[in-house]
Amino acid sequence: MFLIEDIWQLLRLDRFGSKTKLFSESLLQTITDSMSNTSCQSSELEACRDESAAFKLKFIAIASILLAGVAGIAIPLIGKYRKFLRTDGSLFVAAKAFAAGVILATGFVHMLSGGTDALSDPCLPKYPWSKFPFSGFFAMIASLVTLLVDFVGTQYYERKQGLARGSTEEQGQVGLLEADSESGIIQVVEGKVFGEEEGGGMHIVGMHAHAAHHRHSHPNGQDGCDGLLRSRGHEHDHGHGHGHGHGGEDDDNGVRHVVVSQILELGIISHSVIIGLSLGVSQSPCTIRPLIAALSFHQFFEGFALGGCISQAQFKTLSAIIMACFFAITTPAGIGIGTAIASFYNPYSPAALVIEGILDSLSAGILVYMALVDLIAADFLSKRMSCNFRLQVVSYFMLFLGAGLMASLAVWA
């Protein structure tokens, strides 16, 4: 009797183990199916499906987008050594305004709407994705985090640069004080008595706004514009080394451009991967053909804006080349990865839609913040822009033109 009971217990354990094994296999199969072709599909594109033609178009897309990205980011990097394309020239400011409009439209029209479509897709379960506007929420979080990173990064680089040059400045100021103390002269620096604390200075993150301790070099009104013209003429005559207190401002702007270029590249790369992956997994020539032109245009002007920030940040040559190459190859690499996994990857599966929607929304928040604060506000609220009416008109026209053209590409991409 006991033998029969023992055998029965073993049989029950064997059945329990087999059920556990079946459950594990079912779970793994569910996870695999969520990223494969067994779930949601796009019936609209099946009529235009042609894998061989799509494969050829993907190679054309890789070459076109790669060349557009390299050309876009190389123009400002090489142009800083040419007079007509220097980063302090009016032509560069107008072209950068166009690129800023492109990035702004990319964030609002392409990334944010793409994230909204992905996170509200019928393939996703209604709860929680249809109960809350997750795309706007993730974009808001990304903007706030970008602000925090922008502020912390600026403080870090300013403190690092200040420590590096602090000892030399102190030695020079002490030497001047000792030389003048015998004659009873008190050294005045930047409109205040030497030794006075740096009080009242205002630095708005991303807008390069300095007050109080720059009142001497940047007065208000028409006098300020006249002083700006005189100082620019003085710099061209005597070079930038003949100081009138502008060195600190140039250093602050250089620090800002270091932070801006790194954050902007992060935002661009994060959505470039998704764009390349989406094109790579597509087997529809009807989808790929318009994307080639749209993404090449998009990549060129994003590269131009990023290259301008890198050029203004005055990175070392090797660092600038690494950043430029990393930007240029991201979208083509995404296309290559998408082509490799196209046989089993389904971009309309729930898992893929959630990942794409979140990344698109995060990218939208980063790009909108960078376009408005660090690209548009930094140039359009500057003293140089307010003192040059012709530059204002041209820059605003280029800004709206870039935003309008990039927004219109949403018809095809």
Question: Helices, strands, pairings?
Answer:
Layout: H1 2-34, H2 43-46, H3 51-79, H4 90-119, H5 126-129, H6 134-181, E1 188-189, E2 192-193, E3 202-204, E4 209-211, H7 221-238, H8 247-281, H9 285-313, H10 317-340, H11 350-380, H12 383-386, H13 389-408
Antiparallel strand pairs: 1-2, 3-4
Helix pairs in contact: 3-9, 3-10, 4-6, 4-9, 4-11, 4-13, 6-8, 6-11, 8-9, 8-10, 8-11, 9-10
Q: What would you note in describing this structure?
A:
- The chain has 413 residues and is an all-alpha fold.
- It has 13 helices and 4 strands.
- It has helices at residues 2-34, 43-46, 51-79, 90-119, 126-129, 134-181, 221-238, 247-281, 285-313, 317-340, 350-380, 383-386, 389-408; strands spanning 188-189, 192-193, 202-204, 209-211.
- Strands 1-2 form a two-stranded antiparallel sheet.
- The longest helix is centred in the middle third of the chain and has 48 residues, at 134-181.
- Mean pLDDT is 74; it is low at 19-24, 30-39, 185-219 and 235-247.
Short note summarizing the structure:
The chain is mainly α and 413 residues long.
Please describe the structure with a list of short key phrases separated by commas or semicolons.
413 residues; mainly alpha; two-stranded antiparallel sheet; two-stranded antiparallel ribbon; 13 helices
